[in-house]
Amino acid sequence: MGSSSGFIRGVLLDESLLFAEDNNGNTFFQSGSESLLSRLQYSNLHTAISYEGSVSPQKVIFLKEMAMLYSLDCFMLDPSSLDASLSEILQSWGDIGGSCLYVASSKDDDLFLKLHDHGWLTVAKLKESGDGMEDSEVMLINKLEELPLTLCRLSRKFTSNNVIRVGYVMKASREADFAKRGAFPMNPTQNGLMFIPLTFDLPLEPQVHEVDVVFHKATDEITNIELTGSSEYFNGISFSKGMQELKRYCENHPDCCVIDPLDKIYPVVDRLMIQKVLAGLEELKTSGDCRIRAPHFLKVDSFNEPNMMERLSEAELLLPSIVKPQVACGVADAHNMAIVFRTDDFLDLAVPLPAVIQEYVDHSAVLFKFYVLGDKVFHAVKNSTPNSDVFLSSFEKDGLKPLSFNSLKSLPTAKGQIEASGLSSADSTSLDLALVTDAAHWLRKKLDLTIFGFDVVIQEGTRDHVIVDVNYLPSFKEVPTDVAIPAFWDAIKGAYESRRRHN
Q: How does pLDDT run across 464-481, given as a tens digit for each residue?
């Protein structure tokens, strides 16, 4: 039997809370129920849909199909034989070691009281704001989106404060990618974190009050970036209405712990700024036979500059070169790039301005993706674009037109090139892992970020290790989940404790 102490380990959702029927008997999702079921699916909580005996056989089939779709259980909850119903549920869930929660609409006060007598916690969703029960044993919500926050409140009420409650905000598709790997459990992780989704559909301040730390992917919420006047860097980053509210809250509450503060992500939004940060890699003292460095680069405001050749030469740039928008993320065309083979092809190039022209490093079509999660560094080996001579021989008959591409969708390859299914051991052993790991720790201190990634290519001949890209909060999907997710949790906890010590 559930106990009214400890963390919530099991959640039972009445079907009427989740689904409704139209006049033709067709069943549809209530507002907010799809996202709630998706979150509970990966919450590490026992979760089930319940129904009463009066529900039609056809609807029972539907409910069981929905439960299977979201990897949930499905139980009949019979008020007339409640002991037997609860026994079946708890037997299925096993010794869950915490409290059980029943959530329904406010249609049956008596059932709530009976469940409470059996040691269950209860939550009712009001049909209308201000409607309903005043019973102190029942918690009330107005929207399904409030339920995760209610779980947070209950855990705080019934447990000690040694659990860190992490409120997170990011776009739905990114949240789903992380959640599917078990990154956002709603009960405590092995190192004492509990994750609560924050939503801009509800007032933000009460949500932030309930959590200890805010974790975000703010670049998902960028709506516009501007350069004004002669400023070299971005003068204004516009966020969504919700992120602006969070930003104001943090400015007005300096004790609010945010991972990472918004000003810390600005360098990875601006390719010019990050290039200048990477130029500092020269500070690293290397004892091996190769060095790690930034690529040569040049910032341009126009592709029609008459002295383009001279500027390229001064920047130590040879052709082909790769051209990238100065805006690195957060806007639709931030990943529209081109490889340019001739100076004339800069004219009217379809890459957003201002842009950064970057050295194209011959790297034998091998890319090393590095992920920094707190003090841990991981890497993976990926196929990449071919050397410039392969491009030249492949495209010279077509006049060496610029190769335009979107780096999020696909990288350009030479004509007839077959994607390799694997990489030789020689490719991996060419990497000086100690050198890049030192650079990762150096870059972490420079950027003061908790979780970020960067790409390294190894230049043919010189064996220079060149960092060609840096990004904030990558998916680190190439790192095995059983290694990546504990490191992810440790990184968040470490950043929280560090910021608390310095506040």
A: 999 999 999 999 999 999
The one-letter amino acid code at 343 reads T
Side chain identity at residue 191, one-letter code:
N
pTM: 0.88
Query: Tokens standing for 101?
Result: 């929660």
Measuring CA to CA, which residue among 187, 180, 147 is closest to residue 166? 187
CA-CA distance, 169 to 244, in Å (whole number)? 13
DSSP state of 361: -
pLDDT (0 to 100) of residue 22: 83
**pLDDT for 107:** 66
C-alpha to C-alpha distance for 452 and 473, rounded to whole angstroms: 5
% of the chain exceeding 90 in pLDDT:
51
Which residues are CB-contacts of 482 (< 8 A; sequence separation ≥ 6)? Answer: none
**SS3 for 104?**
strand
Interatomic CA distance for residues 199 and 147, integer angstroms: 11
Provide the token pair at 254: 């300096």
Q: How many angstroms separate the CA atoms of 168 and 473, rounded?
A: 13
Q: Print the SS3 string covering 454-488.
A: EEEEECCCCCCEEEEEEEECCCCCCCCHHHHHHHH
DSSP 187: S
Asked whether 2 and 99 are in contact (CB, 8 A), the reply is yes
The phi, psi pair for 152, rounded to 5°, reads -65, -45
User: Residue 193's beta-bridge partner residues?
Assistant: 164
Residues 115, 118, 121: CA angle, nearest 5 degrees: 55
Containing H/E element for 258?
Answer: strand 257-259
Query: Both tokens of residue 280?
Result: 């500092």
